[in-house]
Amino acid sequence: MILLSKLLALGLICFLSGAVQAASPAPTTARLPTTVSDSGPEPQLAKIFKEIEGKRLDSAMQMTESLLRQYPNFRLAHLIKGDLLLARTQQIKTFGAMSGAPTDKVDDLRAEAITRLKGYREKPEAQFVPRYLLQMPRDQRFAIVVDTKRSRLYVYENDLTNGGRPRFVADYYVTQGKLGAEKLVEGDKKTPVGVYHVTANLPREKLADLYGSGAFPLNYPNEWDKRQGRNGSGIWLHGTPSNTFSRPPKASDGCVVLANQDLDVVAKNLQVGLTPVIISNSVEWLSLDDWNKERNELNKAIESWRTDWESRDTERYLKHYSKRFKSGEQNFEQFAVQKKQVNAGKEWIKVKADNLSVFRNPSKEEVVVVTFDQDYRSNNLNNQMKKRQYWLREDGKWKIIYEGSA
Amino acid sequence: MTLNSPLQPRFPLLKTWRALAIGLAIGAATPVFADNLPEVQRLIKQGQYPQALEKVDAYLSNKPKDAQGRFLKGLIYTEMNKPTEAIATFTKLTEDYPELPEPYNNLAVLYAQQKQYDKARTALEMAIRTHPSYAIAYENLGDVYAKLASQAYDKALQLDSANSATQNKMALIRDLITTSGKGNVKPPVPTATAAATPPATQVAAPPAPATPATKAANSTPSASIVTSMPGAAATTTAKPSEPKPPAPTGTAADDVTKAIAAWANAWSRKDIKGYLGQYASDFKTPKGQSRKAWEEERDDRIAGKPGKISVTYDEPQIAINGDRATAKFRQHYKAASLSSSTTKTLIFVRAGNRWLIQEENSR
Lengths: 406, 363
What we know:
The complex is a heterodimer. Chain A is of the alpha+beta class. Chain A contains 10 helices and 20 strands. By secondary structure, chain B is α+β, with helices and mostly antiparallel strands. Chain B has 15 helices and 5 strands.
């Protein structure tokens, strides 16, 4: 048991130092959050490990049993219980001390323990928001942000009373692809990174047991993914099979998997076609000041695009588009020619962009996904559509690199 | 590690019966009916369970509250493979006599046979709560903990019967249960020491005889002594460093003291020949085991044990009565896999100029 607590203590030290390193280099990244989440089994797990480290094994045992009463299929808790029981009859040298225990399964549970505790101790601070949630439309109530490095899903509320600032609601342990994140091709067992939304709500009755209490398909690959040559399909947000409370941190074929009870809670806040699910390798957090700055800058760029379109000054309008712009089969030159022709026949243009959403894509290139209800009116044509644009920052300026109907 | 099957009650259990019988006789039993119980015990020993049941029922019709009679009835039901009745009998006993550890222990064994290990564990913890020194309960509790651990691991790691490691582990335990069921019963010494599994983790701390370990039912990882008597701290006031003046009768007591030393020494050195040589030829082997079977078992448990064995003891209290001597002391057993402390009583008989062990009890 000494060794067990040592191993665990080492584990704790390891992930603390790892987190500090991850946090220090980028100035835009938030410092280690100081508050803790109180949903799910993590607070109890943390207490149990604290008892083990303090060699209060009876108390650890009681807590583990109470945890199991709450989550009867929680394999990690069963493993801890096994160790605590075995420690009463013999010396325990390692986590998952049963002789002949399959190492892959023990490793999975160890990874889950470390991941859960780490996620629990690193809850985002209230004064920091995910960089990706720049502008949410009024009727979108919640946003989902997934951090694959932390195996954590964060729920943010669109706080309209505070000007649409994202407000942290809850966070949950999740499982991702067996081979991690940044999906590229079909069958690579990776979870995609990008800005998605749920496209459907598949009820439990229609699903195999593997998907648990429900499933929400995501629109992977999105326009940007396709443009980057990424493929594959069937990336869902879903629950857990009935024989286990949770799965190891890396176990799916690319889906984001929640415990059933967590999925049920999250599902209540998911609006099909609306709720963004932004998956990041490592979520970047901004202070509210920085977040406001980025948000204003983008809103200004979008507004400028809209008024330049209304001005019928095609050159000014086209300055908002990247030379690498592409939409369907059309490249920038073809697009420019077409716009000049169309604008020549216009006496007036009115463009309204309602229900604007601006989500930053979690990637190395600076890309934002802009979606809005476009109401286009002119002397000879009216058109209403839901439009989606990808804006890319080129030489310090935001340029549209793709646009199409959403 | 075996589950102590009440099918073959071991020596300490018998001893407890005696203790019980005496205790109860003082309390309430009238001589007329008290005579019936040895008869019941004799019938049980002979395997004549229906007759034993008849006798015990007759006995209980006059004394329906009698603990000893009801305990025997529970045992008979167990022998007759009527676990439901046996459990009911022992459960009622624990309700009426919550201070007796034996009914709890046997309940635990019955529950364990039904794979209800959580219930078994609760019963054993109750037994230990009432009698913190009850070695059998510790031993059984160790087994139940191991079983529960194995179940927890199965759930954690999704092991099924196809997993060879689990199979081996399970088979090993099943095998030992069968062995004890066949009558290959452990003698009292190892029962209390070598086999008793303290519920504590063996940490490298040296045994501290003075440590009161009455809370031993719960594992305290730093405590290496767990099976101590509740009154041990009071009765064994003698610490190793300040030995009590030896018991009376001069040289005889000295000789007995030497015999104990030789016995513990041989055991510690794993000198099985020297160890067995300390026992009289008419040594009362536990549960009427044959001398040969007993010697083989001791050989297995002493010479066959991996790692070092250390047997030490606190200053014994020795009473000499002619050619018989009774030595009572606190024994500290330490092996690679466990440590335990028990109160040991050795009855010596004089054989020429030597004192040899004729009876050995531990509790």
